[in-house]
Amino acid sequence: MSDFQITKAVIPAAGWGTRFLPATKATPKEMLPVVDKPAIQYVVEEAAAAHLLNVLMIIGRNKRPIEDHFDRADELERVLTKRGDTERLELVRAATDLVSMHFVRQGDPKGLGHAILTATSFVGNEPFAVLLGDDLIDPRDPILPRMLEVQRKFGGSVVALMEVKPSEISLYGAAGVEATSESDVVRITSLVEKPTLTEAPSNYAVIGRYVLAPEIFEVLTATSPGRGGEIQLTDALAVLAQRDGSGGPVHGVVFTGRRYDTGDRMNYLKTIVQIAAGRADLGPEFLTWLKEFTREER
User: Is residue 2 predicted with pLDDT exceeding 70?
Assistant: First the structure.
């Protein structure tokens, strides 16, 4: 068991967002609003809640609005201060005050594994978390604190897993698992990126939360491009899963809470509805309207 406190998180955000064109022609997909905050802010808030207060965001050349969002907006703050609009002033400042933000450009995106490699100098020789921006975890059902606890206990690396329908496993990395003494923790025995139904070792899907040992960088450097011609993080984790020490083993925490997917248009719309419905300030009125709207549309 390790007493080391993990404080660093990496958030890859260099993708083109082509599924949301033309909206993402000039606006990063991570900045698309989910109710009244950009999607990426929910992810940074999750990191902050888990005390991961040193965050590196991996971006591309079209992502400057993300940097601006997490920077001070002095002129806007002066306007709001002059108006006495303290409520909106606090909302504007909230994004800036969450964590210590750092940014690095990925350059030519060559997959998630390649993106993680760009964080090598930021991370150094210590474990760190990775949060993917397409997965939003409901703050009422946090997963990162449990993953950090499991990493402290077992060492190595930890991934978040979720049981999905067998017909959906080809959309994810799939994990072969064996039970441990803890009901929500499994040991990973194998990993396959986006397998066919017959290739999948189980219906346990890897979702976008990881706690990685620094040895992942050495393995990624030696990893050849895999599915899609990209350097896959799943392939590197499959190597670590065969180790005891030197970055392994790899354990999985099985997540059964609320998770929202913003990776495509339909799931993005579902996410907005679900999050709006769960908010105390919007939910009651919104749900009343939604019920009336659905009745009228039948």
Answer: no
Structure tokens at 269: 């719309």
Among the CATH numbers 2.60.40.420, 3.30.230.10, 3.40.50.2300, 3.90.550.10, which is that of 8-263?
3.90.550.10
138-193 pLDDT tens trace:
999 999 999 999 999 999 999 999 999 999 999 999 999 999 999 999 999 999 98
Label each residue of the chain as H, E or C.
Answer: CCCCCCCEEEEEECCCCHHHCCCCCCCCHHHCEECCEEHHHHHHHHHHHCCCCEEEEEECCCCHHHHHHCCCCHHHHHHHHHHCCHHHHHHHHHHHHCCEEEEEECCCCCCHHHHHHCCHHHHCCCCEEEECCCEEECCCCCCHHHHHHHHHHHCCEEEEEEECCHHHHHHCEEEEEEECCCCCEEEEEEEEECCCCCCCCCCEEEEEEEEECCCHHHHHHCCCCCHHHCCCHHHHHHHHCCCCECCECEEEEECCCCEEECCCHHHHHHHHHHHHHCCCCCHHHHHHHHHHHHHHHC
